[in-house]
Amino acid sequence: QRQCVKRPARYSHSMTETQLNQKIVTSNDWQPHLDALQLRIFKGISILQAMDAQLTAFDGTRLRLDAPLDKNFNDKGTGFAGSIASVAALSGWAFLSLQLAKRFSELANEVAIYHCDLSYAQPITGDFHGVARLAAGQDLDALFARLADRGRGKIEILAEVMQGDEVKATLKGKYFARIPELDNSGR
User: Fold this and answer.
1) Which of 87, 114, 145, 168 makes the best surface tag, with the fewest CB within 10 Å?
2) Is 77 helix (H, G, I), strand (E, B) or coil?
3) Other C-beta atoms within 10 Å of 34: how many?
4) Which tens digits make up the pLDDT trace of 53-108?
5) Could you give the CA distance from residue 183 to residue 179 in angstroms, rounded to a whole number?
6) Distance in angstroms between the alpha carbons of the first and the last residue of the chain
7) Which of 33, 83, 79 is nearest to 57 (CA)?
């Protein structure tokens, strides 16, 4: 079994210019959820072991997932597009999974991306990380209300793949969330 090692956060991204260099700091109330999700993804998503992707921070509004270039490069020695896409999509998935784990702690949850737009801005030439957050205009409380009422809902998440402080790729993803015990759709 693989030992999960936390790497120190080298960079974090925030939504305002004045907070650009603030680190994403995981508070004590999120840490158990972050640790449990790291174990879950390493057991359940085998490609992440090969990618050496690590959840490194979550502050309730932003999640960071790190990946080293030496495990995720292409024939040109730059970031492999498939790895970049995986880091972006998984950052959003992990962001939403953690939100649901905390809000509906006693209930299992299912999260899946069902649509995304991914754009690559520049080649990645070093270690990189994904930073996920809610897309503009999205409301977690509204999603939680839909989940409590119907057991299923949708939300849009923005994930930026960064090298240092530069955005190298951007994913706008639409994610589906389901709480099976609350799902009254008959499916």
Assistant:
1) 114
2) coil
3) 19
4) 999 889 889 999 999 999 999 999 999 999 999 999 999 999 999 999 888 876 78
5) 6
6) 35
7) 33
